[in-house]
Every structure is written in structure tokens, then in C-alpha cells.
Amino acid sequence: MPRSVNAVASRARRKKVLKLAKGNFGSRGNVWTVAKNTVEKGLCYAYAHRALKKRTFRSLWITRINAAVRNQGMTYSQFIGKLNAKGIVLNRKVMADLAMNEPKAFEAIVKAVK
């Protein structure tokens, strides 16, 4: 009886990993053992950095709001404190977008808070 190997599934599995490794430099993109390690590590980074991306964007929004609010003669912490006291519910993503693209609307929010 001939030896039974599941070559179809094995090849498919390797092709899937090599497809994910496509674009890497040198043997990282086309040698199975190296590509497998590269893809595994890359997927670990992808998992970890999904959370990091949220932190990074929140930091960016806060920086943009702070810059826009300082032009109006106020600090970020004062602005957020007064915003909460007035009961105005706008998240930082929306406020940063207004500060960048609609400065007049953002100025109206700052005046409503003062």
C-alpha cells in the first residue's frame, strides 16, 4: 500500500502563508521556514498594534484639539472640563475633525463653553 500524505492540504497551507509573506525582502517572502516565522511574528504585531492604534489616534486628536483651543486662549484641560460641566457631549474624534476642517464651527463650540 502506498504512503498516504495529504499533499493537497499541505501545499494549500504553505501557499496561504507564502501569500501573506508576499512583499517581504529576500528569503522572507519565498522560503517556507523563514516566511512562516515572518508571518507569525507579523500577525502577533498586528494583534498588539490594533490596541496601540486606538491610543495613538486618541493622542493625535487631543493634540489637535489642544492646538485649536490654545488659539482661542484656553488650554485643553480647561476646555474639556468646561465642556463636561456644560453637558456638551462630543467625542474627541469629532472635535478634532471640526478643529481641522471647520474652524468656525469649532470656534462656536469654544465660545459656547466660555
Please identify which CATH superfamily we are dealing with.
Ribosomal protein L20, C-terminal domain
Structural Rg: 25 Å
CATH architecture: Orthogonal Bundle
Work out the helix count: 5
Low-confidence stretches: none
Overall structural domain count: 1
Shape: rod-shaped
Under CATH at level 1, the class stands as Mainly Alpha
Helical content class = over 70%
Q: N-to-C terminal Cα separation, in Å?
A: 86 Å
Number of strands: 0
Largest sheet: none
Beta-strand content bin: under 5%
What this model shows, in words?
This protein is mainly α and 114 residues long. It has one domain (7-113): Ribosomal protein L20, C-terminal domain (c-terminal domain of poly(a) binding protein, Orthogonal Bundle). Helix content is 75%, strand content 0%. It is built from five helices and no strands. It starts with 6 loop residues before the first helix and ends with a helix.
Sequence-ordered SSE layout with sheet pairings:
Layout: H1 7-20, H2 32-71, H3 76-86, H4 92-101, H5 103-113
Helix pairs in contact: 1-2, 2-4, 4-5
Keywords, please?
rod-shaped, 0% strand, 114 residues
Q: How would you briefly describe this protein structure?
A:
The chain is an all-alpha fold and 114 residues long. The protein has helices at residues 7-20, 32-71, 76-86, 92-101, 103-113.
